[in-house]
Structures are given as C-alpha cells and as structure tokens.
C-alpha cells in the first residue's frame, strides 16, 4: 500500500489517497478533489508505481465529501472501476438531484435557525458550489458497514463511524501482528473533524461522533492512516484527546450561555471562534449547534425558539466545577 498526498481546495491540509497496486488489482481509497491539479498529482504519483488511472479496478470511499470523492467519476469513466461507498452517502456521491436538493434545503433551514446572517449564507453557498452537480459523478455500489473487501489478498473490514458524515466508514486491516485502520476524517492528527456543519443530514451528530471515537479507542489500533496529513501512531490516545477536547468545548458553550444569557448558535460560535470566513462560516456555528443540540437532549440547556439558555440547576453545577470540562454523558 502506498500513501499519496494531494493538494485540495479545503483547509484541512493535504488530502490522502491510498493505493494498492501490489497484485492483480489496483484499488484506491479516496481520490482527492476534482481539481485538474489534483488529477495531475495523482497521475504523477501513480506513474511512479507504473500505474495509470485506466488501471484502477476499484475505488473505496470513506465518505461523500468532495475532497475525498472528486475524481471518482472521472476515474470510473476512464477505467470502468467500481466505486463503493456507504449507503447513507451513496446518493450524494452518485449525484442524485433529489438527495442534493434535500440537503440544500436542510442547510437553508438550519442556517436560518442558527442565526447566520443572510450575507454570510449567500457567501457560504457560493463557497460550497464546488460540491454541486456540475462534475462527473460515478455509478456507485453501496455497502452498509460490516462487510469485508479483499484486495490483493488483504482483508479490509468496513466499520461505520457516523458523525462527521452520515456514511463515514473506516477500513481496518491486519498487518503481521498489528491492526491498522484507514480512518478517513473520523480521526485526524491535527484538526478535530467538524460535527454539525460538515453533514447537516446527521441526527445527533455530536453523540454519534463521540461514540465513533470511543469505538476507535476501544479497538486499540496500532496505526491510523487518516484522510489528511500524516499517519497517527497512537490512534487510541488521539481519539481520547478529541473526546477530551469536546468535553472542554461543551464547558465553553455553557460558559457562553452563563455569561451572555440566551443565545442562538451563531452568537455562541462568535464567542468561541470570533469572526469567521470561508468554509469556517459553516463549521463554526455547526459545531456550536451540535453541542447545543446534544446538551438540550441531555436536559442541560433549554431551547426557547432558536435560542438556548441554561436553567438554574445547570448554572449551579457549572459554578461548582473545579475544571473547565463538562461530562457529555455518552
């Protein structure tokens, strides 16, 4: 297996694609985005392995985001490769117009309820236009999670890890006496993957993501190969670090409500992250919303219209804490 680093049009740092070309099949995990420069990089890296795009037999996708799936349609058109992705993400990857329109409508409704200013909404939709229906979309073969793919004698076991995206999946495999995993954007070495904004279709995104992280920590993988940047040598520690990060963020969300009173997600986001630009306009209030929604379901905060407030019992509990960290109860 070879890791290929590709530039992207997002902010998380270079994308990773992974290629298996050491046997009768050529298989890719993720493809990078749809930019011509990305395709040129991918072709050049494959050429170092004496492989062309037309040689690709299968593409396994970790999730639907365009920086991971952008070239899948072009590669399939050139090679006839089959494209596999979780059933929850398959309609978006295949360019199903009804699925995209439903997601856009959910975004419009949520952005308004979050308190996002109309000018910011318009700029954000312009920014996200790279994910529209103008590119080449592949025919996809959906999977559900729990399957095993066999690639040149190597078993890749599918583990569904919803949260960042509805259909996000890991591919775990054994290497001698080690178990490693392709983690997509479920586990990254630097940034904490966004929840709430990255896929507005996900119900209870923070709870789902924390459970995915708990499962990663329990699996005790020996190494993770992420969707961005360098391999993670201690995936359990990194998963636990991100869980701790969200406990600290929950405390900060509650502290904003304690200090400012009733707030909508946009106001909480501004207090947490300041003025936002570019794709962060989606991710900031989305993450604030994910936390507020979770805290509401846990009866920690109350929702009044589009605003959230902390009841007296929560205020007393918050005041009594000795550390800036809130148990998420997951």
From TrEMBL:
Residues 14-228 form the Metallo-beta-lactamase domain. Keywords: Coiled coil, Hydrolase. Pfam families: Lactamase_B (PF00753). InterPro entries: Metallo-B-lactamas, RibonucZ/Hydroxyglut_hydro, Sec-metab_biosynth-thioest. Gene3D superfamilies: Ribonuclease Z/Hydroxyacylglutathione hydrolase-like. It comes from the Archaea. Residues 32-59 form a coiled coil. This is MBL fold metallo-hydrolase.
